[in-house]
Design brief:
The complex is a heterodimer of chains A (about 170) and B (about 350). Helix content of chain A is about 25%, strand content about 15%. Chain A is an alpha+beta fold and about 170 residues long. Chain A has a domain at about 60-170: Alpha-Beta Plaits, CATH 3.30.70.3270. In chain A, the strands form two sheets. A three-stranded antiparallel β-sheet of chain A has the order 2-3-5. Chain B has about 350 residues and is mainly alpha-helical. Helix content of chain B is about 70%, strand content about 5%. Chain B has a two-stranded antiparallel sheet. A two-stranded antiparallel ribbon of chain B has the order 3-4. In chain B, helix 6 packs parallel to helix 14 and helix 11 (about 245-270) crosses helix 13. The longest helix of chain B has about 35 residues, at about 10-45. The radius of gyration of chain B is 21 Å and the shape is globular. The termini of chain B are far apart. Classes of the chains: A alpha+beta (about 170), B mainly alpha (about 350).
């Protein structure tokens, strides 16, 4: 017979020998395999106590970055929202007032910044699009939730803690 | 006075013994469910139940509690009385066999000889066969009363499987009985005293290796365990005879299977592996106090039983399920002729030895 590929394996179709028909040697062979597995290393990771390290390219929950002085980096340019294939990001820009200079780095800032985590596909395009290094995908798995409303993450949920205020807390 | 004639101490002794045996069987069956999951896990490179208590030791309690709180459903078209009777019958027959098993050597307390056997009936093996055959009624009634095609098919399978393998089992035991000359389990165990006597092993396994092998295979089939678990074959009959059962009635079916496994391990240890006898027991009997001797005998017996239970589990997680025709072929075309040949050879040898 002409084979289409050379991947076909020959199969032994000889009648079974007595040992094969008795089936007992085969049982012993099977038991040898399974018993040998008793002493092998277990593959289980007991999750909450042990965690497997993430890959370096892992894309998890988003964070909004601050600069060294604790000012928000985001200027509400909207490039992340444009880049987002799932249209999960919405924002509203506002102009910085003079007394707010310690809060926002640029003259324009995001008054409202929301990511709908039910829409987000964690592609990381927002991270790539951001010219101000303001949005990053962290190494955190998104927690589950009971309501759709709480899956829309507000700016307060996304912002990383203020570096100076955190020092004060310590 | 009739009441005065009753041996009250005897009654108390037996009731106490029955209670202990019942509790031990239930306890071992409960932990066999945990053991099964652990064995399955380690053989598949997992760690198994580990959350409930240390090493998951409270898992049987959690499982039982879960089953108790589940909703109890009796299908509308099921025959209600028989539907309830099924699991009850399965459980009762599973526990009944433990009555005649000698759990340890007899001992003397205050002039009374206390035997660790509830009833030493002289037709012990026959009793086992009777009760084991009744066991299939639990499956039959449950599967039939469910009024479900899968359940009915499964119970038919269970019945035919049980009939086919009981034959070979019986014949393999006849060969054993030719050598022992008694049906009483107590006498059979006493004949296997120690380990070595008169230049040969005393345990029946070494006199009847083929008989033991046939008995073992048939025990697998009688227990409806893998590789012969066709009655509850998930892929074809999705659960089989306990398909319509829920809550603790399902629990009883599952639990009774483990009790059956425990009891049949005990029967095999008694008949073929010397029961509570172990090598060097005479030395222990002469040098150690009586209670220690009795305890060591009981321990030896339980070690054998647990070894058998572990073997049952190893086989279950190693072999794939037989096909129905393969099952029948193995039973009728291989095991019965083999058992017959074994019986003939044993008979010839028994005649030659002049027993």
């Amino acid at each position: 017979m002409q084979h289409l590929t050379n991947r076909a394996l020959p199969i032994n179709r000889d009648p079974m020998t007595l040992a094969e028909r008795l089936y007992v040697p085969a049982i012993a062979k099977g038991l040898k395999v399974t018993v040998s597995h008793i002493f092998k290393k277990k593959a289980t990771v007991s999750y909450p106590e042990e965690k497997r390290p993430f890959a370096p390219v892992f894309r998890g929950l988003h964070v909004l970055n601050r600069d060294e002085e604790g000012r928000e980096r985001c200027t509400a340019c909207g490039l992340c929202a444009v880049a987002c294939p799932a249209e999960a990001i919405t924002m509203e820009a506002a102009e910085r007032k003079p007394e707010e200079a310690h809060l926002y780095r640029e003259e324009k800032y995001a008054a409202k910044y929301e990511i709908n985590m039910l829409r987000c596909i964690f592609c990381g395009f927002c991270e790539e699009a951001c010219p101000k290094d303001a949005i990053y995908l962290s190494e955190t798995v998104m927690p589950s939730n009971y309501s759709r409303r709480s899956m829309i993450y507000k700016k307060d949920d996304l912002l990383i803690p203020h570096p100076k205020k955190q020092e004060d807390n310590k | 006075m009739l009441l005065m004639q009753i041996d009250w101490l005897f009654l108390i002794e037996k009731i106490g013994l029955i209670t202990i045996i019942l509790l031990i069987s239930l306890g071992i069956a409960a932990y066999a469910t945990w053991g099964e999951r652990k064995v399955a896990a380690v053989m598949q490179d997992r760690i198994g139940p580990a959350r409930a208590g240390i090493f998951g030791l409270l898992q049987p309690l959690a499982d039982g509690g879960k089953l108790f709180f589940k909703e109890e459903i009796i299908p509308q078209s099921a025959s209600k009385i028989i539907f309830v009777l099924g699991p009850a019958m399965f459980m009762v027959t599973a526990l009944m066999t433990s009555v005649i098993i000698p759990w340890g050597p007899s001992f003397e307390v205050g002039g009374r000889i206390i035997s660790l056997q509830v009833a030493d009936i002289n037709i012990g093996i026959l009793f086992i066969f009777g009760v084991v055959s009744l066991g299939v009624y639990g499956i039959m009634l449950g599967g039939w009363a469910s009024n479900n095609k899968y359940s009915l098919l499964s119970s038919i399978r269970a019945a035919s499987q049980s009939i086919s393998y009981e034959l070979a089992m019986g014949i393999s035991l006849i060969a054993l009985l030719l050598l022992t000359g008694t049906l009483s389990l107590h006498d059979i165990v006493e004949q296997q005293h120690g380990f070595w006597a008169d230049g040969y092993f005393t345990w029946n396994f070494f006199k009847q290796p083929l008989g033991f092998f046939i008995f073992l295979v048939c025990a697998f089939a009688e227990l409806n365990r893998a590789p012969f678990d066709l009655p509850e074959c998930e892929s074809e009959l999705n659960m089989g005879f306990h398909l319509e059962y829920s809550s603790m009635k399902l629990g009883l079916y599952l639990f009774a299977e483990y009790i059956n496994m425990f009891i049949s391990s005990a029967v095999m240890a008694t008949l073929f592996f010397g029961g509570y006898n172990y090598p060097g027991m005479d030395w222990v009997s002469a040098h150690a106090p009586q209670w220690l001797f009795v305890l060591s005998g009981v321990t030896a017996f339980f070690v054998k039983i647990i070894a058998f239970i572990l073997f049952f589990m190893l086989i279950r997680w190693t072999l794939p399920r037989f096909r129905y025709d393969q099952l029948m072929k193995l039973g009728w075309k291989s095991l019965i002729p083999l058992a017959l040949i074994n019986m003939l050879i044993t008979g010839g040898i028994a005649l030659w030895l002049g027993k």
